Amino acid sequence: MSTSNTTKTALLLIDIQKGFLPPYSVHWGPSRSNPSFESNAASILTSYRRLKSSPSLAPSQHKIIHIQHASTSLTSPLHPSKSETFDFQDWATPEDDEVVVIKDVNSGFIGTNLEEILRSHFGTHENTKVYILGLSTDHCVSTTTRMAGNLKVAGEVVLIGDATAAWEKVVEEGDGQGLDAELVMRVHLQSLREFARVSTTKRVLEEVEALRD
């Protein structure tokens, strides 16, 4: 049997919710990095869904997990009482056979059963990968990626860098200057190389396609 047919994977989509869309996105910062985030992330999700439905693979070999942030702050667009912004973006709405994990802190592993889901999915399998994408690079994506690496939930953690995005940082006090959104994203992706292989949409699409062979 080929290596591709013995690989078990999971795709984590982090916080792709309507509260990150305009006009609500100003809550997070004046501007956002990576205008290609939506198209890149959507292409990964579409390709991965095709992989899951491939007749040559076992239905349980690959798993899609949507992580949804339920803020405890009433002023946040991601508070569960605000369904118009708490809900997933239309293109990222989970399908019936996909898992939804709800969190209320940055990490998808704290206060949830995400670790249990992944360990149950992978079992004693040797060749395992977790792919991660979503929002935002420097908050929930970063924290979840770090913990995925530290917990060793898979043989390899792969962060799809250009399928994430970050917001400009505004300095509210002192004489410092704000940080450009693209700079915030690039710096955090470089730091996360200690915890994961930081890859690209193009490369991961090639990997996902190879898994269907």
Descriptive account of the structure:
The protein has one domain (4-211): Isochorismatase-like (Rossmann fold). Helix 1 packs parallel to helix 6. It is built from six helices and six strands. It has helices spanning 37-52, 83-86, 114-122, 137-151, 181-191, 201-211; strands at 8-14, 62-69, 99-103, 128-135, 156-165, 197-199. Helix 2 (83-86) links the parallel strand 2 and strand 3 (99-103). It has a six-stranded parallel sheet with strand order 3-2-1-4-5-6, with helices on both faces.
Give a summary of the structure in a few sentences.
With 213 residues, this protein is of the alpha/beta class. Helix content is 31%, strand content 19%. The protein has a single domain (4-211), classed as Isochorismatase-like (Rossmann fold), CATH 3.40.50.
Write a concise keyword list for the protein shown above:
19% strand; 6-stranded parallel sheet; 213 residues; 6 helices; Rossmann fold
SSE map:
Elements (H helix, E strand, L loop, with lengths): L7 E7 L22 H16 L9 E8 L13 H4 L12 E5 L10 H9 L5 E8 L1 H15 L4 E10 L15 H11 L5 E3 L1 H11 L2
Parallel strand pairs: 1-2, 1-4, 2-3, 4-5, 5-6
Helix pairs in contact: 1-6
Work out the radius of gyration.
17 Å
Cα end-to-end separation: 11 Å
What sort of overall outline do the alpha carbons produce when their principal axes are compared?
globular
At CATH's second level, what is the architecture? 3-Layer(aba) Sandwich
Uncertain segments are: none
Strand and helix order: EHEHEHEHEHEH
